[in-house]
């Protein structure tokens, strides 16, 4: 694909709407939760099938291929979540799947891929080494190579996360960025509604932020807890979309990421992996009346989580300021209870479930 190809010619908001229609029989909408101590709403994609938003793009890509009559086996390189989502989608649609994963991929994710019957090939020590090996296998055997992020069908599937957030009417949405598939899809879904889209990357793992500034030099990414966004080269298509639609990128320090993940677990009882906590970690630097951060995944190794909980000491959150509104004299008995009730409702931590049918249970007949 040419670097000058308009992004709109490859993927658009209408593709995201089409993906939502395809996915409705298979995937339930995930809840929105108000994290009061963070002053931010959370889109809980850690509760998605296979524990990550990645299953959306994978399932949409397989369904779209079936519509086009493409019945080839599918191969993909992945640090874990894309492979798990693709394995689940392949199992549901009876499509053979081969997943190439780095040797250092979390065992939780490797086991999740194998559970759904996909063939797992461990190769290399990074996502990019696994990607090159997957490219070779696809060329040798005629497999369909499905990028974890740089594919129009994948981007459109990930964009359904944004459509489910629209009912909240956020003014700012925070999204983690690795290759850029999730951020591009969410931007396509929400930008036309005037929502600011802010990406989050880790210090030393900021290939997309540098590419958007014009720095396309390939550098080895730093070791990070957020293995799901540890990408050496961002997508070409995703970069075109984000160059048009992304408002800002926040670079998060590793220590901030670790503390946010632990606070999520202890204060909000939300288990996130490193990349899953990244958007919320960036949220403290972004102002907004109604911020919403995507918790992109929850597939963290138990040993890693236990180590973080034992080592990371979080700072006590600031006490919230008590806000009160002056009411006209003589109407306290009527308006003040109503105001208090409205305030309690606005700060309630009860999750919001967007209207969508529940996913079918294993064994049920699933149809596109």
Automatic annotation (TrEMBL):
User: Could you tell me where the Low complexity compositional bias lies?
Assistant: 342-357
**What's the superkingdom here?**
Bacteria
InterPro entries for the chain:
Ser/Thr_Dehydratase, TrpB-like_PALP, TrpB-like_PALP_sf
**The Tryptophan synthase beta chain-like PALP domain covers which part of the protein?**
26-289
What does the entry give for GO biological process?
isoleucine biosynthetic process; L-serine catabolic process; L-threonine catabolic process
> What protein family does this chain belong to?
Belongs to the serine/threonine dehydratase family.
What is this protein's record name? Threonine dehydratase
Upper classification of the organism: Bacteria, Pseudomonadati, Pseudomonadota, Gammaproteobacteria, Lysobacterales
């Amino acid at each position: 694909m040419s670097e000058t190809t308009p992004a709109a010619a490859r993927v658009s908001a209408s593709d995201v709407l089409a993906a939502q229609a395809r996915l409705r029989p298979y995937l339930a909408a995930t809840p929105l939760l108000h994290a009061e101590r963070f002053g931010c709403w959370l889109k809980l994609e850690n509760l998605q099938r296979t524990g990550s938003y990645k299953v959306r793009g994978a399932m949409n890509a397989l369904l779209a291929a079936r519509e086009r009559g493409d019945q080839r086996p599918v191969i993909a390189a992945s640090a874990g979540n894309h492979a798990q989502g693709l394995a689940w989608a392949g199992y549901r649609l009876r499509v053979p799947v081969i997943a190439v994963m780095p040797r250092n991929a979390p065992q939780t994710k490797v086991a999740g891929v194998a559970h759904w019957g996909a063939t797992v090939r461990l190769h290399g020590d990074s996502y990019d080494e696994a990607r090159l090996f997957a490219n070779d296998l696809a060329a040798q055997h005629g497999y369909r190579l499905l990028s974890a992020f740089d594919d129009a069908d994948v981007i459109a599937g990930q964009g359904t996360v944004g459509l489910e957030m629209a009912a909240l009417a956020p003014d700012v949405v925070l999204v983690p960025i690795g290759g850029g598939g999730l951020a591009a899809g969410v931007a396509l879904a929400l930008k036309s509604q005037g929502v600011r889209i802010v990406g989050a990357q880790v210090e030393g793992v900021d290939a997309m932020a540098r590419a958007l500034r014009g720095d396309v030099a390939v550098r080895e990414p730093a070791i990070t807890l957020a293995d799901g966004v540890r990408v050496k080269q961002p997508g070409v298509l995703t970069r075109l979309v984000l160059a048009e639609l992304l408002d800002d990128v926040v670079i998060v320090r590793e220590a901030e990421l670790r503390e946010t993940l632990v606070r999520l677990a202890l204060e909000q009882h939300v288990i996130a992996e490193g990349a899953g906590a990244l958007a919320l970690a960036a949220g403290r630097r972004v102002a907004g009346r109604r911020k919403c951060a995507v918790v992109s995944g929850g597939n963290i190794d138990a040993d890693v989580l236990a180590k973080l909980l034992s080592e990371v000491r979080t700072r006590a959150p600031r006490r919230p300021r008590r806000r009160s509104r002056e009411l006209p004299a003589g109407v306290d008995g009527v308006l003040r209870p109503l105001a208090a009730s409205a305030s309690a409702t606005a700060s309630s931590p009860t999750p919001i479930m967007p209207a969508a049918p529940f996913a079918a249970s294993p064994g049920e007949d699933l149809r596109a």
